[in-house]
């Protein structure tokens, strides 16, 4: 069951980037689309947790929910939705995988953490991968909007990095509350902020939102992407470890590249593929210690079992 749900989660997360792309290509306002997605998904999940008596309305009155929602949902996805107007879904997925690298950079520059050698090497490799992937848009003037979109998506990952660091403190403070309820709360706030941003920056033409492609994209992202995908993620955290659940970051971006090529005829150059692989290698090296724990724990358990059997 764990393996099945893990594969399903990776497949879901790999397709959400294409779903966003389909929506914005259908002229759905990006901030409005993101706002509706997260507000509705957060509201449904939160009401479900209230019904199961695993959350209370007082949770929404804690400033931590607003701050987490600002980083993890509002900042991250306002950038992603806007950037995907000019960037392919596969490229957006890979650029979004730079989040763990930016977490490390924030820890080094702001929190004054001393990095390990392999973490620094991973940062350098990841940065080189970004340069390789963005090189074509740097060299061709007609691709300037692609370059701007890529930079905006990476900037959005800075919000994700800050939100991820802060959310660890929030999880400790609210350790007795279901992670799904915490996630629903931050999605509610993030979605509301996206709707507020949309109200001031976008014209709401609901006929665009009601087209088959835009509506299908929105429904898929609400139900499959946000509700089912994130619930599977937190289920896997509960049944395994946060490290194992987070390994989707190394699987889904590569899947997203091929999903975009196969189902949306997005172009995939050899340089894009090399850049994507380089970014993911850099991300894996940055998280070397965590991944080492993930693989060493089963080996230690197996060794202890063998020792017991030989006695």
Task: Give structural notes.
The protein is built from 14 helices and no strands. The protein is mostly helical. The mean pLDDT is 89.
Element layout with pairings:
Layout lengths: L1 H24 L4 H22 L11 H21 L5 H8 L2 H11 L7 H23 L4 H30 L5 H23 L4 H4 L2 H28 L2 H4 L2 H17 L5 H17 L1 H23 L1
Helix pairs in contact: 1-4, 1-10, 1-12, 2-3, 2-8, 2-10, 3-7, 3-8, 4-7, 4-12, 5-6, 5-7, 6-13, 12-13
Instruction: Give the overall pLDDT as a whole number.
Output: 89
Report strand %: under 5%
Computed over alpha carbons, the radius of gyration is 20 Å
Uncertain runs are none
Order of helices and strands: HHHHHHHHHHHHHH
- CA distance, first residue to last residue: 33 Å
Number of H/I helices: 14
Helicity, in percent?
Answer: over 70%
The tally of strands reads 0
**For the report, how would you describe the main beta sheet?**
none
Quickly give the structural class.
mainly alpha
Q: Which outline best applies?
A: globular
Protein traits:
311 residues; mainly alpha; 82% helix; 0% strand; transmembrane; EamA family transporter; membrane
In short:
It is found in: Cell membrane. By secondary structure, this protein is mainly alpha-helical.
């Amino acid at each position: 069951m764990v393996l099945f749900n893990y594969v399903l989660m990776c497949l879901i997360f790999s397709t959400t980037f294409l779903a966003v792309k389909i929506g914005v290509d259908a002229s759905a306002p990006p901030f409005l689309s993101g706002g509706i997605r997260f507000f509705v998904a957060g509201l449904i999940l939160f009401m479900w947790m209230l019904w199961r008596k695993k959350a209370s309305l007082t949770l929404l009155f804690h400033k931590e929910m607003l701050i987490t929602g600002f980083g993890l949902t509002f900042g991250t996805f306002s950038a992603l939705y806007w950037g995907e107007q000019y960037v392919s879904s596969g490229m957006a997925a890979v650029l979004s995988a730079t989040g763990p690298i930016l977490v490390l950079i924030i820890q080094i520059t702001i929190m004054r953490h001393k990095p390990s050698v392999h973490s620094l090497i991973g940062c350098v490799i990841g940065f080189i991968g970004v340069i390789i992937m963005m090189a074509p848009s740097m060299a061709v003037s007609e691709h300037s909007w692609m370059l701007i979109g890529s930079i905006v998506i990476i900037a959005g990952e800075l919000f994700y990095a800050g939100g991820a660091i802060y959310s660890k403190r929030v999880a400790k403070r609210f350790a007795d509350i279901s992670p799904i309820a915490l996630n629903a709360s931050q999605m509610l706030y993030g979605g509301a902020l996206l709707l507020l941003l949309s109200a001031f920056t976008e014209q709401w033409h609901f006929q665009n939102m009601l087209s088959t492609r835009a509506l299908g994209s929105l429904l898929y992202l609400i139900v499959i992407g946000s509700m089912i995908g994130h619930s599977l993620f937190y289920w896997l955290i509960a049944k395994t470890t946060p490290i194992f659940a987070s390994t989707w970051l190394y699987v889904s971006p590569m899947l997203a590249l091929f999903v975009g090529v196969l189902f949306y005829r997005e172009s995939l150059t050899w340089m894009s593929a090399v850049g994507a692989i380089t970014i993911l290698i850099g991300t894996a090296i940055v998280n070397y210690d965590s991944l080492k724990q993930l693989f060493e724990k089963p080996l230690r358990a197996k060794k202890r079992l063998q020792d017991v059997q030989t006695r």
